[in-house]
Design brief:
The chain is α+β, with helices and mostly antiparallel strands. The protein has a single domain, classed as Ribosomal Protein L22, Chain A, CATH 3.90.470. The chain has 3 helices and 10 strands; from the N terminus they run H-H-E-E-E-E-E-H-E-E-E-E-E.
């Protein structure tokens, strides 16, 4: 189901376990997006933003994929969105995780990668999930929603979307 470029990317991964996960997760992503776009998953074409964020060619869908350990999380919606998940290590504080995943979800939503300094915007680390401020004048917190996603007890995840009142679907995919 993967494109030649995706197959080549999977082959470049050093460990067989990582190749298998990449193949399963990207195949599942194509199946999910194909269902929403009404197209054969194999026929989907992708393009990439200036910092590598993937987009569907000729589709009005937005999507994002994040993975950590054995879990991948896919989000699909109509507006810009980003999702991030992390496997929780017991020695770390959940507040630190919340802050990181909320910021990473936003950075992924706008396609900035880590080129955007993390100190130009603030998010809550407690409940409820929210944007507090954007100090660069580029964004308005009122136009964005951030939400925690619960993919399982060992993971923590967040979704950021440029819309009020989320109309986004998320899919958790586990591969042992």
């Amino acid at each position: 189901m993967l494109s030649a470029a995706e197959q080549a990317r999977a082959e470049r991964l050093r460990f067989a376990e990582h190749r298998r996960r990449f193949t399963v997760w990207h195949g599942a992503l194509r199946a999910i997006l194909g269902g929403y776009a009404g197209r054969e998953p194999r026929a989907l074409e992708f393009t990439f933003g200036p910092r590598g964020k993937p987009y569907l060619v000729d589709a009005r869908l937005q999507f994002n994929l994040s993975h950590s350990a054995q879990l991948a999380l896919v989000a699909v919606g109509r507006n810009e969105l980003g999702v991030d998940c992390e496997k929780v290590r017991p020695e770390r504080l959940r507040g630190c995780y919340r802050c990181w995943i909320r910021k990473e979800a936003f950075i992924k939503a706008i396609g900035a990668g880590l080129s955007l300094p993390l100190d130009v915007f603030d998010v809550t680390i407690g409940e409820p999930a929210a944007f507090l401020a954007f100090r660069d004048g580029q964004e308005d917190p009122e136009r964005w929603t951030i939400a925690d996603v619960s993919p399982g007890p060992a993971y923590i995840a967040a979704l950021a979307a440029r819309e009020r009142g989320l109309r986004v679907r998320t899919f958790a995919l586990r591969v042992s």
